[in-house]
Design a protein that fits this description.
Blueprint lengths: L2 H7 L2 H14 L8 E7 L2 E7 L8 E6 L17 H14 L4 E6 L11 H17 L5 E6 L1 H14 L11 E5 L20 H12 L18 H7 L5 E6 L5 H12 L5 E6 L6 H8 L3 H4 L1 H14 L1
Parallel strand pairs: 3-4, 3-5, 5-6, 6-7, 7-8
Antiparallel strand pairs: 1-2, 2-4
Helix pairs in contact: 3-11, 4-5, 5-7
């Protein structure tokens, strides 16, 4: 899909009516969870909370991407709204009293290139910390290119002299785009991603001033175990990916690297599944259990590690 068309398809004006239609099908006239747009001081995103009048006991900080393989060039947090609302609802059902979530809206390529998106990711994280105070109550997460930004954020934090004062409590990575341009990215019969298109998006994202081998821009190039140890969230992280996806080999390499840090690493490989399967299933699953399978697994381990 051309990025110009994708931007329209994933925009708020298209997505919100579609979301309302899906809610009506399930008997909801209004969203059962409160949400609002954030747009101030250059920071954009969506804020979701159970009770706006109370301080959250956990905040999920999420970076999105288009699950149709749009790289950094198309997608919006509004496209993920149903997925994110369900995430907050399941956190409440799992036992958190007032879970909240902030989904970052970062500048797409080619309107801006790296490091703009990383700087916005850092600003979004600082915004979340200003609300919750204690970083151990924050779970950072993202899918595909959004997960790349989360890995970049963690490496950035691990580079700080007082890194242990800033690290989140947990991280959830869905089908991370580990290495932006990799010979291990190979098309599969099942996955909708295309390696050549992804490499084009990657070069557009990095631009002309940064190397594609930069370890913060392309975290798969970071092979420094000590750096990864400093970057690990205090309670570890989860990685979910599909067994048939283009990024599979690089994801397995990342898992092997992170396991050397001694941190808690929860791995969920869904056999026979495609890229970002927890997001895709929410829209395509036949039953409620099938639609929420990935999210239920995510929430369960978050509660185990942060509850």
């Amino acid at each position: 899909m051309p990025a110009s068309i994708g931007r329209v398809f994933f925009s708020k004006g298209v997505i919100i009516p579609f979301l309302k239609f899906r809610m009506l099908r399930h008997g909801y006239l209004h969203s059962p969870v409160y949400w609002r747009d954030i747009d101030r001081d250059g920071l954009k995103g969506i804020w979701i909370t159970t009770d706006e009048t109370k301080e959250p006991d956990i905040i999920v900080y999420y970076c999105h991407v288009s699950y149709l393989g749009g790289g950094f060039s198309m997608g919006s947090s509004h496209f993920y709204l149903e997925f994110l609302l369900a995430w907050v609802t399941l956190l409440r059902e799992e036992g958190f009293h007032n879970p909240a979530l902030f989904a970052l809206e970062y500048t797409l390529v080619p309107d801006a290139v790296y490091p703009t998106q990383l700087q916005q990711t850092i600003a979004g994280y600082n915004h979340v910390l200003s609300i919750v105070g204690n970083p151990s109550r924050v779970c950072v997460g993202g899918d595909s290119a959004g997960a790349t930004l989360i890995l970049s954020l963690l490496l950035h934090l691990g580079n700080m002299t007082d890194y242990d004062q800033h690290l989140p409590g947990y991280a959830t990575l869905i089908s991370p785009w580990v290495t932006l341009v990799s010979p291990k990215n190979r098309d599969t019969a099942s996955d909708y991603l295309n390696a050549d298109s992804l490499h084009l998006y990657a070069r557009q994202y990095v631009g002309s001033k940064i190397s594609l081998n930069d370890p913060i821009a392309s975290p798969g190039h970071c092979t420094d175990i000590d750096w990864w140890q400093r970057a690990m969230p205090s309670n570890g992280l989860s990685i979910l990916f599909g067994g048939e996806e283009v990024f599979g080999p690089d994801t397995l390499d990342l898992i092997a690297m992170l396991e050397k840090t001694g941190a808690f690493i929860d791995v969920r490989e869904e056999r026979g599944s495609i890229h970002a399967w927890p997001v895709a299933r929410l829209f395509l699953g036949d039953s409620k259990a099938e639609r929420q399978k990935g999210l239920a697994e995510i929430v369960e381990v978050i509660h185990e590690r942060m509850g």
